[in-house]
Specification:
Elements (H helix, E strand, L loop, with lengths): L2 H6 L1 E7 L3 H7 L2 H8 L3 E7 L12 E2 L9 E2 L1 H13 L7 E11 L2 H8 L3 E5 L16 E4 L9 H12 L33 E2 L2 E2 L9 H10 L7
Bound molecules: ligand 4HQ.
Ligand 4HQ binds next to β5.
Amino acid sequence: MSPARDQNKMKIQIISLFPQMFEKVLNASMLWKAQKAGLVEYKLINLRDFGLGPRKQVDDAPYGGGDGMVLRPEPLVAAIEAAKLKAKSQKPKVVLMSPSGVMFDQAKARELAKLDEMILVCGRYEGYDERVSEFVDEQVSIGNYVLTGGELPAMVVIDAVTRLIPGVLGGETSALNESFSQPSVLEHPHYTRPEEFRGLKVPEVLLSGDHAKISNWRRQNQKRLQK
Ligand code: 4HQ
């Protein structure tokens, strides 16, 4: 690969106790094509490799008592530092998945898609030792619900960000005139074959071949973002 291409390639490093969760998602469809085209690379880092002692311990009981386990800071910070050593730049953005982070939305996806690399940190159990927050640049939440780990949120972020990398949406007009590019505007409804399905017809205008009428119809039927 040419150095120019490599410079443009977005590098996403993912720190997780369950790297195998990512394989099917990253190696299918557009995310796989984006990698093959040299537009993005995903590197998985197994947090277990940074575990402490012969048992590779990564978690411990919470100080003050209570249920569940908490991720110890040393393995997490060691993994972040290892990722930074493999980064392309001096200051790669480190993003921690957390239900108390800033809400992930299309604006955040666009912001992250401009970066040439990032490090995503996925927690498990009841969460991570609070001191880890000193070693990350931002915390991002994909929604107000509690999951069992940061892996699904990281995959959501990767998916939304990767499709905005120039060249990933093949052939088409790219992400530009598409849903969400402009804030609070979604796409118009889509139809494909058949012309009639269980009595439901495709709007006549879409079959008319009249492109002025069609774009007018699409404008009028544009879906709006829920607020
Ligand atoms: N978790 N958006 C708990 C989330 C979450 C979310 C991730 C659960 C971190 C420790 N992350 N772990 N919602 O619920 O990002």
